[in-house]
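Continuing the batch. This is chain 6 of the set; chains 1 through 5 are on the previous pages. Same settings as before, nothing changed between runs. Recording input and output for traceability.
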Amino acid sequence: MENGLVQNGEVLERIKNINSPPIPNHVGEMHFKENQIGGGGCY
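Output for chain 6:
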């Protein structure tokens, strides 16, 4: 289960990096945590 969540987070981070300019690590961490909780940080 955890491995799947981590993989999804990595994919989302890659998509964000491609679609958005480089962002500070702090923002990425916040999105990653929200994604794990199930918040879907895409928005």
